[in-house]
Design brief:
- The complex is a heterodimer of chains A (333) and B (304).
- Chain A is an all-alpha fold and 333 residues long.
- Chain A has a domain of 191 residues: MetI-like fold, CATH 1.10.3720.10.
- Chain A is built from twelve helices and no strands.
- In chain A, 34% of the residues are buried.
- Chain B is mainly α.
- Chain B has one domain: MetI-like fold (Orthogonal Bundle), CATH 1.10.3720.
- Chain B is 68% helix and 0% strand.
- The N and C termini of chain B lie far apart (57 Å).
- Classes of the chains: A mainly alpha (333), B mainly alpha (304).
- Chains A and B meet through helix 1, helix 7, helix 8, helix 10 and helix 11 of A and helix 4, helix 5, helix 9 and helix 12 of B.
Chain lengths: 333, 304
């Protein structure tokens, strides 16, 4: 029975991936823009070769990328190469494939994402629970509740303001980049510290930009749970308020937050990508921004597809793991 | 028989006067702080934009209007940027354009969502399954990434405020559709709808006289959510350089400023003021949204 449910979830995942791939296939082909012609027209203008050769080159490239075939065949080719994780090659950095570019940039993005997402989730949920908890001291509740004000302000804007106040005005941390100009990447302690110092501001921007949402939803959950019988029962048993907070209150309020986590993944990842770009960090965001600047279309679509698939997969995984956290919920219901 | 004296009427029954509507409104606003703060910020932004548009020429918000790279001074209170735009004018017209995208895309998204949600929930069957299925499959795809693909396929010269709003709109209807669908589904089963049906009111009559008026709070809340989402989405598109490049859209300005290394060159006023403006717009929308949630959904109402 539960195998059937897992199968249905995976089918849903495949449908999402198929929809995303179909959208990224058809939209560019509906537009009148021809990236290959644009690219070589720019080259011709800057004096790479005589404009007369342009048509020949464009035709040969169209053939190379299979753009002269009928649309349905292009679609089949595209889907089958996608199934082999072949996302094509970069036009800008030619011999490099899109997959190579993604693999190079991925560790930076994942490092930043995992650290900030986990910290923001933990901090936000504790603050949210405290904001709704009657026994918490008043000042603590006020401070926790005020974090709700951050909800709605995108991390990128906080990034710009953090750069202004901390890096530009106070001169405490570097403005952007992944390591100081002039230092050579090497496996040394000083260099590691330098890299970490460059990651602090982007991480803070991401944490502050996402924590408000967790505080808000956790506060709502907390208010709902206060009236529950098991919390009253625990109080009447005379358990210490610390135990009640941790075992009766926080744990139960946390469950729906896990579902919220799966839903928020898309936003978190896109925010991280844009923060990376503003801070000039080497990551998927920077590769994407670079590709947009020079209209390197296969790289744009490759990264978009990759991130979509990653997010959809994570969402389904969280959903499938949920019954482990909450024994009351069984997958076959 | 003894004289029975009737008990003297009590001095006067205390008069309970219902406070006026305005008083009640103020009392509610004092309790619902997030709604109040959000509305106040919004009011400030509206006054700022209207006064600004009446007093400042719109040309000053475009390139080569004034001398470039001036720090904030008496002549240019917010400075001027690298391309010779007066930042005060940019803030006024940029705020207006940002709001315009939000209202067009958010409004249209809500409208489409309400229509589809209604059709889906009220008629059910295959239509319902199709609308629900498509919405659910599209939901997990990060909207921003698909918007990048759409915006990237357009010719850069063709991108205007309106195409921007349209790009945002294309993927802004699924959320409202699913919310409206579930609301209509639960409302359809309420006793007053059954009463209306039994007394012979037709489908159209029930929709317009029974269901729609009760849905209004949800529609308003969805509208605010969608305006917020549209401003957010258009900002993200602009900040990766896919906005209408010539317009003083606030996101565009930040993109240009960061691209020119504004902080390295010391032109801090260039990115900082648009960032503050956008934070105010998005923050106030989020607060209003939160306040409306408290108003329409008693479950999250503060227990005070």
């Amino acid at each position: 029975m539960s195998l059937w449910v897992i199968g249905r979830r995976i089918l849903f995942l495949l449908m999402v991936i198929w929809a995303a791939a179909t959208i990224t296939f058809f939209i560019p082909r509906l537009s009148s823009r021809n990236p290959i012609r644009e690219r070589f027209a720019t080259l011709a203008r800057t004096g790479g070769f005589s404009p007369g050769d342009l048509e020949t080159i464009v035709a040969s490239y169209n053939q190379k990328f299979g753009l002269d075939k009928p649309l349905w065949q292009q679609y089949v080719d595209y889907m089958s190469s996608l199934a082999r994780f072949d996302l094509g090659v970069s036009l800008n950095l030619f011999p490099k494939t899109v997959v190579e570019l993604i693999v190079e940039a991925l560790p930076w993005s994942i490092g930043l994402l995992i650290v900030t997402t986990i910290l923001s989730f933990i901090i936000g949920n504790i603050l949210g629970a405290l904001a709704a908890w009657p026994q918490a001291p008043n000042w603590l509740r006020t401070i926790s509740t005020s974090f709700v004000l951050l909800q709605g302000v995108p991390p990128v804007l906080l990034g710009v303001l953090l750069i202004f106040f901390i890096a530009f005005r106070a001169n405490l941390l570097p403005i952007s980049g992944s390591y100081s100009i002039g230092s050579v990447p090497e496996w040394s302690f000083a260099f590691a510290i330098d890299v970490l110092r460059h990651q602090i501001l982007p991480a803070l921007a991401l944490i502050f930009g996402t924590v408000g949402g967790w505080v808000l939803s956790m506060r709502g959950m907390g208010i709902t749970i206060q009236g529950e019988d098991y919390v009253l029962f625990a109080e009447h048993k005379g358990l210490s308020s610390r135990t009640i907070f941790r075992d009766y209150y926080l744990r139960n309020a946390l469950l729906p937050q896990v579902t919220g986590f799966a839903l928020a993944l898309g936003n978190v990842v896109t925010s991280a990508i844009i923060v990376e770009q503003i801070f000039g960090l080497p990551g998927l965001g920077n590769v994407l921004a670079q590709a947009i600047r020079v209209n390197d279309f296969l790289v744009i679509y490759g990264i978009v597809l990759f991130i979509t698939i990653a997010i959809a997969t994570l969402m389904v995984l969280v959903e499938l793991l949920y019954p482990l956290l909450d024994p009351r919920i069984r997958l076959d219901q | 028989m003894a004289n029975i004296s009737l008990p003297q009427p009590q001095a006067q029954a205390p008069v309970f006067s219902q406070p006026g509507r305005l008083t009640l409104l103020f009392r509610y606003l004092r309790r619902n702080m997030s709604l109040t703060i959000g509305l106040l910020i919004m009011l400030f932004l509206i006054v700022f934009t209207i006064v600004g548009m009446l007093t400042i020429e719109s040309e000053n918000a475009y390139a080569l209007a004034v001398s470039s790279k001036q720090p904030p001074s008496a002549e240019f209170p917010l400075g001027t940027d690298f391309f010779g735009r007066d930042m005060l004018a940019v803030m006024v017209y940029g705020t207006w354009q940002t709001a315009l995208i939000g209202i067009i895309a958010g409004g249209a998204g809500t409208l489409v969502g309400v229509l589809l949600g209604f059709i889906s929930a009220y008629f059910g069957g295959i239509i319902d399954a199709a609308i629900k299925g498509i919405s659910q499959i599209l939901m997990p795809i990060p909207v921003f990434l698909i918007q990048i693909v759409i915006a990237g396929s357009l010719d850069k010269r063709d991108v205007t405020i309106y195409t921007m709003a349209f790009i945002v709109l294309i993927l802004a209807w699924m959320g409202p559709t699913l919310v409206m669908r579930s609301q209509v589904l639960s409302m359809k089963e309420r006793p007053y709808v059954a009463v209306a049906k039994l007394s012979g009111v037709g489908d159209i009559g029930i929709i317009f006289t029974e269901i729609l008026p009760n849905l209004l709070p949800f529609i308003v809340a969805q509208f605010v959510t969608q305006v917020f989402a549209a401003v957010f989405a258009s900002f993200y598109l602009a900040i990766v350089g896919l906005g209408p490049l010539r317009e003083p859209l606030l996101g565009n300005i930040i993109w240009a400023a960061m691209g020119q290394g504004a902080f390295f060159n010391g032109w801090w006023w260039w990115p900082v003021f648009p960032a503050v403006g956008l934070a105010l717009i998005l923050g106030s929308l989020a607060l209003i949204n939160m306040g409306l949630d408290e108003l329409s959904n008693p479950r999250v109402r503060r227990s005070e």
